[in-house]
Amino acid sequence: MNQNTPAPLSPRPLRHLSQNQRQLMSAAQLKAHGVGAAAVQEQCRAGGSWQQLLPGVYLLHPGPPSDEERLHAVLLYSGRAPERRGRPDGVPTQHAPGRAPYSDTMVTGLAALALHGFSAAPPLSSLDHIDVLIPRTRRLRSTAFARLIRTTGLPTPVQLKGVPVTPVPRALADAVGRLSDAGAVRRLLTEAVRGGHCEPAAVVRELSQARLLTRPHVIDAVDSLLAEGRTIAEDRLYAMVREHGLPDPVWNVDLRLPGGPHLGGVDAFWPDHAVALELDTRAPRQDEDALWSEYARKREHLERLGITVVHVSPKKLRESIEQQAAIVRTALMASGDRDPAAYVVVLPR
To answer: Which region ranges are annotated with the description Disordered (predicted)?
Structure first.
């Protein structure tokens, strides 16, 4: 025998399974362990110890799969699991912390919301289908409990419980697209905002891109969502003024020139400093450009009259309230260095 001939590679033992995949493997992974198609069929025969959950995806124990195994089965079926380099002893290495074990796929819809911790989403065990997002160019079909949703561009996933999951706004859009129960839609959207998962504008943007804003029950839920989001943002604004020692403004007022035109409403106004504050709660809809133009015209008009306008978004109030308080304080302190502003009439809104 030629001494230069390398020894054949021995199959990697099946006991070295990925902790993330539990006892679940794809046909390609089994082959890498030296288990051929004939051996797989033998194990999956009636009364065997293995079972096929999805095309090319096998559960290496009898009995029903767990919720985690169903999730990983769908991801194994729909995604591309990158090859792992094995150690010299043939044992596959683990993924680096935080690195997604799947590519070109992620859990979305109600399953994703359940993983995000939504109490309004059904538990994973009660879902007949697990929705996954894949690129539009992939040649796969929905089958069994794996339901594929195609998209032209995948969002950046969030890693939850070892699986890639769509961000909340996209998961909501994919879930709402399959729900006809107005109450269920309203509960999911409300929890997204009330639970601090995301801002209303991000949700509306995804619903708009999914062309769901023409459905009456979705429109009604969005109106409630925007009202909910504004109420929460206003509460944070009141807390910012109170907790950071800002002078009390007059709240929710309309500004008007004496005997002249209406200048617009503002959420807070400090008359002695000629500083106005507006909560930017615009939601991206089909008329977003027109809304933005009106918004910008009002700001420019007020600033020409010597009134400083501070814009605060609900997201900034949630994530950096101290910074927003500092911005308002700076505007108030700078008022003494400016020319006197035009006199305006302040009316309740």
So the answer is: 79-100
